[in-house]
Amino acid sequence: MLTRLAYLIIVLVVGAGSIVLCRLTQATFVESGTSWLTGPVETAVGYPIQAVGGIFQNVHGMAELRRENERLRAELDRLQQETVLLPELQRENQLLREQLDLRRARPSYQYASGRIIGYDPDPLVKSIIINLGTRDGIADGMTVVTAQGLVGRVLRTNPNTAKVLLITDVSSSINGLVQSTRARGVVNGSPTGRLVMRYIGQSEVVHTGDRVVTSGLGGNFPPGILIGSVIDVRQRDVEMFQEARVEPTVDVNRLEVVLVVTNFLPTRLE
Question: Domain residue spans in the chain?
Fold first, then answer.
């Protein structure tokens, strides 16, 4: 009896286990089948969505990069403009300071500041055109200077411009004197761009490096304006006078701004 009962129990247990196992297997098979069917669909749908999202991210990133490039380019342009402008502002500041120093050094004179707007096209004529004219109170014969020294004189005027004959022109003639020894002579222009001081008495002492200024004789220029410095002296016993070559203190080839003395008019034109 016990043997049959034990056998019956064993059969029931094995049967129940088989049923449970079968159902579990069926569930797993269904789940696997569902996954097999839906997996490709999920993948097919997911990849395009991810790709589209990536495209939008790339487009946004490109737009940001483009805006950044534009900002950097504008900043670079600004810096380049400042790099060009800064030396010009420094140069203009220096010129204004020099003009102010000149006005303080010679307060008895009144000045009009003008800018060079042209040079005479004739290579044999040393003259410049400035942006001042009769409307600015400029008249023929007025003295033109910079802080460094004498530039020339106004040769001809128009309402808005004036032509200035430079001291280096061969037709220019200025009564000058050596500042240290007071030796007198006449300073003329020359084709070389240097000046020649003629008619210096043989007994006068002139040294290399001496400064030459306007003497005021003849009434064509105010006295005491620096003309240049002596670079060499030529003296011969058989001649009545000695000569000195003079380097002008104003570089007439690099002029930008000049001052016209407006309250001094020559008593006569040369």
Answer: 1-105, 110-166, 173-255
When mean pLDDT is compared across 94-98, 103-107, 135-139, 264-268, the lowest value belongs to 94-98
CATH placement of domain 173-255:
2.40.10.350
Give residue 30's pLDDT. 42
Q: How confident is the model at residue 244 (pLDDT cuts 50, 70, 90)?
A: very high
**Can you list the pairs that 215-220 forms with residues at least 24 positions away whose Cβ atoms lie under 8 Å?**
215/175, 215/176, 215/177, 215/184, 216/175, 217/175, 217/184, 218/175, 218/267, 218/268, 218/270, 219/266, 219/267, 219/268, 220/141, 220/153, 220/174, 220/175, 220/266, 220/267, 220/268, 220/269, 220/270
pTM above 0.70, yes or no: no
